[in-house]
What we know:
Structural class: alpha+beta
Number of helices: 4
Number of strands: 13
CATH superfamily: Jelly Rolls
Mean pLDDT: 97
CATH topology: Jelly Rolls
CATH class: Mainly Beta
Radius of gyration: 17 Å
Amino acid sequence: MDVRALRIDGAWELTPRLHPDDRGTFLEWFTAEALRDATGRDLVLAQANASVSRAGVVRGIHYADVPPGQAKYVTCTTGSVLDVVVDLRVGSPTFGTWDSVLLDAHDRRAVFLSEGLGHAFMSLEDGSTVVYLCSAGYAPEREHAVDPTDPEIGVAWPAHGPGGEPLTPLFSPRDAAAPSLSEACAAGSLPRADAVAAYLATLRS
């Protein structure tokens, strides 16, 4: 598996080696060893999620209180999505910036993002299926959202799908009403970079 660090500290792109033959393709889409070698920590699996989305659906930007936060290992098994990681850690050198990876059923890439980072994606095709391995279970009282269209963050959501068809962004009511980055920061709901770093150090010890 090939691993590439993203622009935001604490996030990686993982590209598996594909083994095609006349029956189809085999791959290891997750290995604990590859993740540990890249990140210096293990992913303790608490929950596995799946979502199926029509073209244009945007899910996120979501994040969770740290500790415990929620690390995610994300891949797309059918269709394609633009997966986005946003640095929401107040005090981080890259606070408010984002990076993205195309996840699809061709290259079978995955993204790992550590606790304290924001996550979102846009479905580029009908029926795009995303699966997530999560380090913590769903806890609504600890989970939050930031406006995925906030111009301060400036995520460049695609206007067209892989075949050139136009995409119309579709948001859940929760995400459409989410506060901006500045509003979330003023409310004190964003994770602090120093607290996140201290918590991650305990995971590596």
